[in-house]
Amino acid sequence: MLAAEYISKLTRAWLNVDQVKLELCIDRIYRALINGQLVLTAGNGGSASTASHFVNDWAKGLREKTNSPIRAICLSDNIATITALANDVSYDQIYANQLENYMGLKPILICISGSGNSTNILSAAVQAKKLGIEVVGLIGFDGGKLIELSTSYFHCDINDMQIVEDMHLSFGHMVLRRFQ
Hints:
By secondary structure, this protein is α/β, with parallel strands linked by helices. The protein has a single domain (about 20-175), classed as Rossmann fold (3-Layer(aba) Sandwich). It has eight helices and five strands, in the order H-H-E-H-E-H-H-E-H-E-H-E-H. It has helices at about 1-15, 20-35, 45-65, 80-90, 95-100, 120-130, 145-150, 160-175; strands at about 40, 70-75, 110-115, 135-140, 150-155. It has a five-stranded parallel β-sheet. Helix 2 packs across helix 8 (about 160-175) and helix 3 runs parallel beside helix 8 (about 160-175). The longest helix is centred in the first third of the chain and has 21 residues, at about 45-65. The radius of gyration is 16 Å and the shape is globular. It starts with a helix and ends with a helix.
């Protein structure tokens, strides 16, 4: 019963997704990767794991498919940088502070937040906009503040963190499949 209910809820959530916006986000990331543009990812908790998973899949999987270097970095992966910034600056700035390191590379930033209201993700999105970096938001629930800070976004309009996280992870796999 539990599995059937979960699968049913996940299926209903996918059926409610704005497919046009989803395809636009997939295509935007695909174009960035195929053209050698740097793609930065960031998230907290499960979303940090998703951000890291994206980079792993794209760096390995896409490299195998395209035989070209893939430029993607997860801002959540360097624990030394994150803890130094959290201690010396502010946890709210752990991603925003890192963005200036990549300015000459004209990156695009994928911000992943189930609630759309994670303070450090919002700070990164605000900083990205100041620096002229495009923000692609992956959000859930009501979209939070991140929906308004995103140039484009994939919104999972459901109040269930596990369903949102599953959908966000699937997004990265859809980007990978776009290369087939």
